[in-house]
Predict the structure.
Amino acid sequence: MSVETMTGKQRGIGAIQTGSRLLNAFVAIGRPAMLRELAEQADLTPAQAHAYLVSYRSVGLVEQDTHSGHYRLGPFALNLGLVRLRTHDPLRMTSEEIVTLSAVQGTMVSLSVWGTYGPTIIQVQEGPSQLHVNVRAGTVFSITGTATGRVFAAFLPEDLIAQQVSVEMADKGTQRIGAPSSLTDLRRHTEFVRHHGYAPIEGQPVPGVNALAAAVRDYTGQVQCVVTMIGAAGMMDTRCGGQRAEALLAFVARLSANLGYSGI
């Protein structure tokens, strides 16, 4: 029998909330599992877990292998996930969220995608302190000379990046922000991004201004967009483990998880 509970000022159904622990157990384990393992992960008794699994099987949310007895998520769970992916717009989600990030961190925040000419800003959220940085929607970043560009370079196909670097080196008179550099130099930075999850830059391309950039990725690992925090050097710590870097990493991790990215 379901039990109604209070969640804040809204009424919820306790049985559904308890059952969600079992569904979370499937996610946490990440493979077909036996009843006892699922129950332990969900902090339920095997009898409790079995009752939920019976109901979940009846609607196709869970299925059981007849030979091994292992349970796994069923076709209805897949359909739910597919609907979520089709109806969740990563750019709109991130666009809304960077407003809060900018306010909490007190920095300028830009949102960029990969465009025809490389990393391209589609939104800028001004921070409380005015920065003399010429960035606006439509601005194109250098892939080698900016934190934003280096994040894209770390996760996009290598042949595409090599081609983009060649274009930048041969076309130094464009309006891209950030001085171009060699592919060898870029690879040093992309190794850092892949290892630590973000790209820092200090005093470039604007003296006295630092930036941190990190990617929002989807369930396939593909970069959907890059979020960049920009601030005066004195208030923008770029070191690993620093408050700014940790805040940015937590931010993109949460948004990426909403798109099904597991971080693996």
User: Anything to note?
Assistant: The radius of gyration is 23 Å. Residues 1-7 have pLDDT under 50 and may be disordered. Residues 14-29 form the longest helix (16 residues). The CA atoms of residues 61 and 80 lie 9 Å apart.
